[in-house]
Write a structure and sequence with these properties.
The chain is mainly β and about 140 residues long. About 5% of the residues lie in helices and about 65% in strands. The chain has one domain. The longest helix is centred in the C-terminal third of the chain and has 8 residues. The relative contact order is 0.31.
């Protein structure tokens, strides 16, 4: 008699051995679509800055003195002194210091607030599921 699973032969029990195998595979499916869009937002802000301005003040001082040579430009503290020379016709030619230009600096500062528009980009992402993925999800 042929032995069948679970039968006894001379006090021996024959048990079948079963093994399962697993095979894993992949397939491509479309799960949906993604749309990405950039949007520019504008933001109103106030730009603050300190503006600095420099003014020059010129003062003319009449001298009317005869000089032997051309005087050089010089500084007297923060004031720049530039000699202005004129030749005058006399029986002889002489250098006459006609005037000096005195140039001084004066700085002013002004705080200003100016409204400006800033632009900032942000990405908007919208995910749309495909019809095939929703059918598979129902299974």
């Amino acid at each position: 008699m042929a032995s069948q699973p679970g039968t006894r032969q001379r006090d021996k029990v024959v048990l079948p051995v079963v093994e399962e195998e697993l095979r894993v595979g992949k397939r491509k499916t479309t799960s949906g679509k993604v749309r990405i869009e950039t949007v520019v937002d504008t933001i109103e802000e106030v730009a603050k800055a300190t503006l600095e301005e420099e003014h020059l003040e010129v003062t003319r001082i009449a001298i009317g003195r005869e000089v032997g040579s051309v005087p050089s430009t010089r500084h007297e503290g923060d004031v720049l002194v530039i000699p202005v020379i004129e030749e005058i016709l006399v029986v002889e030619k002489r250098l006459m210091l006609k005037e000096e230009l005195r140039i001084s600096r004066r700085k002013t500062q002004e705080n200003v607030e100016v409204p400006i528009t800033l632009r900032k980009e942000r990405a908007v992402i919208e995910h749309t599921p495909s019809q095939t993925s929703s059918k598979e999800a129902k299974r």
